[in-house]
Specification:
alpha/beta, Rossmann fold, 5 domains, 6-stranded parallel sheet, 22 strands
């Protein structure tokens, strides 16, 4: 009789509970768990009864194996079913299942799998399968989809999941949907009153335009909206989202764009997915990011528990990375030269002489969108967007050598270990895409939490190429924005401890080659890739004594925002407003105070509309870009500074602590003004406002602040203001009648509120020629792409000159002399860097 090995030892022992023991009893793909993994698993086990636990480890620290062992431990303990959420792609879930197989752990692919239902296998799936209005895990209030009770939900790469989860709780009514026109018409008159210009831009199909429906109008008419949308709840367009937002429709913010209407609650109503809300244990596997506030805001995790992450004892478990920003080394280095160098490393030509002299390596370039990808096209072997991303990553991991590969907008959720990526290039960071994010970016451009979000994306992107302690990778950060991120002390402290240590040692390399050309950059990268002993010693010494932060930041205003929303969901509007006010009282950031006051007014409107409008009036004083009260349409005048150079020196001194930051800051302004991309129009307007401040002018955005007037206004002298419209998204070869009429209307608006100050009309446009139907506008000056380039070079030359001496940018006399030299004074600027508008030939 043959032996039945499945019966040997069966029934003789209790199920193993400690994750370490589960590993030891399995096939053990590694002789031992990593020390850091063992520490994390032991510390989780001590806290396993906490509903929310954040586990932080450096990239490549073995979080996937830890998460799977935690899920199995929960199954063995009999707490309930185990779900592992592995990202959005089949590839991510497949990788987790492969890891589970190596550990000897059974997995399931769907919630109806008998092994999952019997609590004998871990269900590995993605975020969208759980968080959607048709979820097989159950939807609140839907008897056809009863709640599936869960023992543990493990969320892999939790910070990366947040954008996906937020999107699942956002209803979008596309322009071609049958109810779109009726919905927009319902609010058209108020939208026109709120912002005539933006309303016209939306109607004209401007990609970047949006108009927020005033919360009081939306709230008062939400039942009509419900009646309109409810019959279409089962449409393919709505069925995955409508059940999640229908019950909170009165609390939602609605924005009209040229592409459709976006309806989004202040926080995801996560209770609509009770399987997650009621799970006994929720474990968040995250990178070592400093701010975990979003886990509370988006997933309604307990902020007290979030603030006490589970970490290993040491943060030294990270592979070697050399991180350089070429522009921070030498502002004269151009992007094209860096692209050529990256191509040469992919070919094994490390010294750039055209002859391969080293082993070719895989170079991976991450870009935020297709426009940046196009710039890499002459150098790339592959360019992968969403549809081909999975296959592209698989090829990098499995092929001996691919070359230079561009990945579009994939800063997280992919692993490129070992030879899959030896040189990683980040060429920009993503811009906000949906209406709510773009509005938030416009209202809170410099708030710390917005800066923190950007740093998180950068750190996530930099982590793609190093996946364990023995891995190594060189990282290049292209552009002024990324260069500034690793130079500005206010940004540096937002990186994780290990990344900060690597940035410090990389900075010591950068300081030695500052001002040099690419040959020194090549030498530094080669030292990293060839594992030169001097580099290895310095790199590993930098990490040797680095500890994880023992407490995570969970911002009070983020917690208050979530608590207030939860209260509003059950009709406790005054209590919701009180929660927000407590947070507002603790803030010094005026823009953020105004933002939260607007949300407070939104809740108060449900119980006291008059008080809500009074709160909104106060909010405008804190942040002029929030929604304006129903009766407040009075714009404010601005006055020129007494001395342009003095104002500029004071602004530069407040903003920059060293010369490199100054040069990068100026470069960043012009990097944000991009021709031919409508989606970046708002970014360009914000950059132009910032440019005015750098030049010593009082600068604002009346259209954003008052919903009327020009894109930008510069108070240049006591008797002249620049009235500026930016048409950087236009690709036409002439200035249209609509554009001239718009600028003319802005000039008349200025004359009506400030008749004693002359308006100087200025337009940024691809052409200085007026269309034959365009009426002339007296005094019109046009900043064309070539003139903008001249202006960029002039401002950069001033920044470089001022950066050459310690603190010269704070010296009024030095600034004044440079402004005169570069023709940046109020009297010379537009005469030099703009053209006279030309009438069309008869």
């Amino acid at each position: 009789m043959p032996l039945d090995w499945s019966k040997v030892g069966a029934g003789e022992t209790e199920p193993l509970l400690r994750p370490r023991d589960i590993y030891v009893a399995g096939p053990r793909p590694w002789a031992y768990l990593r020390h850091e993994q063992g520490e994390v698993l032991d510390r989780w086990f001590e806290r396993r009864t906490d509903k929310d636990v954040v586990i932080k480890q450096n990239t490549g620290g073995g979080k996937t194996a830890a998460g799977l062992l935690i899920a199995q431990s929960t199954l063995n303990e009999g707490v309930g079913k185990a779900v592992y959420l592995a990202g959005d792609t089949h590839y991510a879930a497949g990788q987790v299942r492969e890891e589970a197989a190596r550990l000897g752990l059974a997995t399931a692919v769907g919630p109806r799998d008998p092994a999952f239902q019997a609590e004998q296998a871990i269900l590995v799936t993605n975020f969208k399968k759980l968080f959607n209005g048709m979820s097989a895990f159950g939807v609140a209030g839907d008897s056809n989809r009863p709640t599936l009770p869960l023992g543990v939900v493990v969320i892999d790469d939790a910070h990366a999941a947040l954008t996906t989860v937020t999107g699942q709780f956002q209803l979008f009514v596309p322009r071609d949907h049958k109810v779109h026109d009726t919905l927009v018409a319902m609010f058209a008159s108020e939208l026109k009153r709120q912002s005539p210009k933006h309303w016209r831009d939306v109607q004209a199909g401007d990609y970047s335009a949006l108009v927020r429906i005033p919360f009081w109008v939306w709230s008062d008419r939400h039942q009509e909206v419900m009646d309109l949308l409810h019959p279409h709840g089962d449409d393919e367009t709505f069925k995955y989202t409508w059940p999640l937002v229908a019950d909170v429709l009165p609390l939602c913010a609605a924005s009209v764009t040229s592409r459709g209407v976006e309806i989004r609650p202040p926080c995801p109503p996560i209770s609509a997915t009770p399987a997650f809300t009621n799970a006994q244990r929720r474990v968040y596997l995250t990178a070592t990011l400093a701010d975990d506030s979003a886990l509370a805001t988006v997933l309604d995790a307990n902020p007290v528990l979030l603030s006490r992450p589970v970490t290993p004892g040491s943060a030294a478990d990270l592979g070697d990375r050399l991180i350089l920003a070429p522009l921070a080394l030498n502002p004269a280095l151009d992007d094209e030269a860096v692209r050529r160098m990256a191509r040469q490393f992919a070919d094994g030509d490390r010294d750039g002489d055209g002859v391969p002299d080293s082993k070719p390596v895989n170079v991976v370039v991450i870009v935020p969108g297709t426009n940046r990808a196009t710039a890499w096209k002459p150098y790339a072997d592959r360019i992968h967007a969403v549809k081909t991303l999975e296959a592209g990553v698989k090829e990098l991991r499995e092929a001996e050598h691919v070359g230079l590969v561009v990945l579009v907008n994939k800063y997280d959720g992919i692993d490129l270990p070992d030879d899959a990526c030896r040189l990683l290039v980040l060429d920009g960071v993503p811009l906000p895409l949906d209406a709510a994010e773009r509005r938030e970016a416009a209202l809170l451009p410099d708030s710390r939490f917005r800066v923190a979000q950007g740093i998180q994306r950068i750190e996530q992107g930099m982590g793609r190429g190093v996946r364990d302690r023995e891995d190594y990778c060189a990282v290049l950060l292209m552009g002024a924005e990324l260069g500034l991120a690793i130079r500005d002390p206010r940004r540096l402290d937002l990186f994780s401890p290990a990344t900060r240590a690597q940035l410090r040692v990389s900075r010591s390399v950068a300081d030695m080659i500052a001002g040099e050309g690419l040959s020194q950059v090549r030498e530094a990268i080669d030292a990293c890739l060839e594992r030169h002993q001097h580099w290895l010693v310095a790199s590993r010494r930098a990490l040797a004594d680095v500890q994880y932060d023992q407490e995570s930041t969970v911002r009070a205003e983020a917690t208050a925002g979530r608590e207030a929303f939860n209260l509003a969901c059950v009709g406790q509007y005054r209590a919701a407003a009180d929660h927000l006010q407590v947070a507002i009282n603790s803030l010094e950031d005026k823009a953020l105070r105004g933002w939260l006051m607007e949300q407070k007014a939104t809740y108060l409107h449900h119980v006291d509309p008059l008080v809500a409008q009074n709160v909104l009036t106060t909010a405008v004083l804190e942040n002029p870009r929030v929604q304006r009260p129903v009766d407040d349409v009075t714009p404010r005048r601005i006055r020129a500074t007494a001395v342009q150079a003095r104002a500029a020196a004071e602004f530069l001194g407040r903003t920059y602590s060293d010369g490199v930051q100054l040069v990068l800051g100026v470069r960043q302004i012009f990097d944000r003004i991009v021709w031919g991309e409508e989606e970046r129009a708002d970014d360009a307007e914000a950059a132009w406002e910032l440019l005015g401040s750098h030049l010593g002018f009082r600068s604002d955005r009346p259209d954003k602040m008052f919903k009327i007037g020009p894109d930008n206004r510069w108070a240049m002298t006591s008797d002249q203001h620049g009235i500026i419209e930016l048409k950087t998204g236009c690709t036409t070869n002439s200035i249209s009648k609509d554009d001239i009429d718009q600028l003319g209307g802005s000039v008349r608006w200025h004359e009506s509120i400030d008749p004693d100050v002359r308006a100087a009309p200025v337009m940024l446009h691809s052409s200085s020629r007026l269309h034959e139907q365009s009426p002339p506008l007296p005094g019109l000056r046009v900043v064309t792409p070539s003139k903008l380039n001249d202006l960029s070079e002039a401002v950069a030359s001033v920044a470089t000159a001022l950066a050459a001496g310690q603190g010269r940018w704070t010296d009024e006399q030095a600034v004044a002399a440079e402004f005169v030299r570069a023709k940046l004074t109020a009297g010379a600027l537009f005469a030099t860097y703009a053209e006279t508008a030309r009438t069309a030939p008869a």
